[in-house]
Queue: 2 jobs
Job 1
Amino acid sequence: MASGDEQPISDILRIYSGSSHGELAQEIADYLGCNLCKRSTQRFSNDNLFVYLENSVRAKEVVIIQSFCPDVSDNIIELLMMIDAARSASAKTVHAVIPYFSYGRSDKKDQPRISISGRLMADLIDTAGAGHVMTMTLHSPQVHGFFSVPTDHLTAHPVFIRHFKKRKLRNTVVVSPDIGHAKRATKLARALGVGVAAGDKERTADDTVHVADIIGDVKGKNVIVFDDEIATGGSVLALVKLLRKKGVKKITLACTHGVFSGPAIKRLKAMSDIQEIVTTNTVPIPKEKRLDNMTVLSVASVFGEAIRRNIMGKSVGSLFAFWPE
Ligand code: R5P
C-alpha cells in the first residue's frame, strides 16, 4: 500500500501484536504490506508477566496493537510493558493502537470514592512511553481528552455505511438506545439517507436497563439499533422490547464493539426476530459467539490506513473524505 512513497513503509515500521487480538493485528499488518514482529510473553511462578520484543526497534516507528478484551488486566499490563520495552530500546515513536478501549466507560465520578479509570488508563499509557494513540469509537467523544499524547479517535462508520448501502434500505430509521449516542446515530442515518430516533434509557444495574420511551417516529418502520457496544445486551434487550410494542417491522442491531459479555449471547439468541446483528472485529469474537444472523465487518483497513498516513506524515483528518461510500 505504500506505492509512490519514497521509502517502503516496511523499512520504517515495526508492528507488534499483544496477546489480545492477533488476528486483527495480522490483518492490519497485511494491509500495510508488513510482517508482524515477534514478541514473547511469559508468566513467572509469582504471576508476574515478562515481555520480550524479538526484533531491534532502534529509530523505528513502533506500532503495538492491543485491544482491551479479556483478560483485560493482563492485556493492559502487557501493553504497558511492550510500550516501555520499545521506548527504552530507542524506538523513534511508540504508537499504541487500542481498537477497543473498554475503560472508556469509566469516564466520570458518579459516586464518591471511585476512580475515573478511563483517565487513569490513559495516564498509564502516557507514562509507559507511548508517543501516539489510535483508538476507535470511545464510549463518549470527550474520553479523547483523557490522553495527553496525540490521539486519533477513529470511527467504523465507513465500514457500516458500505455494508448498509448494499442492503438497499427502505422505510428505515436508525435508533440510538440513548440520547448520549444520538449524534453518532444521526451521522449514520444521514449517510444512509434514512431517519433517526433515540431511546430514553436509564441503567438500573450492570446488565439491566430501562428504556422509558422513544423520541422519534418508529411505527411501521424497519429499524437499525445502533450503539457503540453490546456488552451484556441489556440495552438492546430493553430497547427491542419497546420497539416491538411501538409496532416496528424488521429489526437490525449494529454496534462497533461486539463485546458480548455475560448473558449477551443467550439474550441475542432468544431475540429470534432480529434480522441481522452487525458488528466489527475490534475485539475477537470466538466461534461459539458467532450467531447465524451475525455479520462481523473488519476495521483493519481503517486502522491500517490511519497508521500509514501517520507514518508518512499525511493528514489523518481527511481520512474519511477519501473513503468510498
Ligand atoms: C452505554 O452507554 C453504552 O453506549 C452501551 O449502550 C452499553 O455499554 C451497552 O451495554 P449493555 O449491552 O450491557 O447494555
Note: The two ends are 20 Å apart (CA to CA).
Job 2
Amino acid sequence: MSKTRAAITGVQGYVPDYVLTNAELEKMVDTNDEWIRTRTGISERRILKGEGRGTSVMGIEAVKGLLEKTNTDPADIELVICATVTADMQFPDTANIIADEVGIKNAFCYDINAACSGFLYALTTGARFIEAGAHKKVIIIGADKMSSIIDYTDRATCVIFGDGAGAVLLEATKEEEGIMDALLKSDGAGRIYLHQKAGGSSYPATAETVARGEHYVYQNGRPVFKAAVSGMPDVVSKVMQRNGLSNEDVNWLVPHQANKRIIETVAKMVDFPMERVMVNIHKYGNTTAGTIPLCLWEWEGQLNKGDNLILTAFGGGFTWGAIYVKWAY
Ligand code: UT7
C-alpha cells in the first residue's frame, strides 16, 4: 500500500492595511531609505493597528479565507497549529483563539514557537500527524504581529520587521505529492544573538524590565546573518541531495524573508537563479512565521501540480530548516 502523505491543498494570506514606509521610519529614527533598501531590501511593511488586536486577528482572516476558498467545513478540521512568537497572550495558545473565532470546534489546537522557522516546524509537525494516519485535515498557520515587540526607537530592528499571517490546509493523500521531506535544526547557543529577554519565567514583567526595554526584540544582526547564510544552504543542499533533486528539478526556492542580501547569498551558494526564488520582502519586511506562507499565497497562481518547491528558513533559537514540497494542485 502506498504511503499516506500530507498535501498542501490551499493557501491564504492576510496583511493589515497600514503601510509603514521607509519615509515614515526616517521621521522616527536616524535612518534613511537608501540604507534600508540596500542593506535589507525592504521598502515598506504592514502594521496591525488598534488596541487589543493581536496576532489572532490576522490568523483569523487567513483561516477564514482558506476555509472559504477550499470549500472546507470547519467541522472537518482536526488539528490547528499556529507558529508564532507573538501569541495574543501567554496562554491560551493563539491557535485556540483562531479556531474558536472561525468555528473550528472538533480540533485540538496549539502554538509552536520556533521564531522565523516556526512555519517549517509547524508544517512538519502537522504533516506527521497526517502521515501517521491520525488526522486527515490539518491547518497550519504562520502569524506574527512583530510590531507588538519592536522598539520603534531602535533603528537596528524597527526597520526590519512587519506584521502578517498565512495559513495552509494540509490533507491526506495517497499521491506522491505534498510534504516529501524535511530537515529541521536547532542550536540554543544562538539565543544570545536574538531574543526577547523579559516577559517569560526568567524575567517576568516588572516596571524595571519595561523601563529597560527588555520586552522588545534584541538582535545582534551580524552573527545572525553569518549563521543564516551557512545554515540555510547546508540544509537546502542536503534535502535536495537526499531526494535526488538537481537545481533544474526545483521550480521554486521559498526562503524566509529576513534580508534580501541573505536570500541572494543563499541562492548563490546553492547556485539557484533568482528568477525562481520567491521574494516579497520589499513589501512586507520580516513577518517572522508569516513570511513563507505569505510567499506561497502570493505565488499560488503561478504554481502547478507537480512543481518541486524547497522552503527554507533561519531564525531565533537558533532554528533553521528546509522542506521539500511537491505542489499538489
Ligand atoms: O529573521 C530572523 C533572523 N534574522 C536575520 O536573519 C537578520 C540577520 N541580520 C541582518 O539582516 C543584518 O545584520 C541587519 C539588516 C540586521 C543589519 O545589517 P548589517 O549590514 O549587518 O548592519 P550592522 O548591524 O553591521 O550595522 C552597520 C552600520 C552600523 O553603523 P557603523 O557602526 O558602521 O557606523 C549601524 O549603526 O549601519 C548602522 N545601522 C543603520 N544605519 C541606518 C544599523 N541600522 C541602521 C539603520 N539605518 N536602520
Note: The longest helix spans residues 221-242.
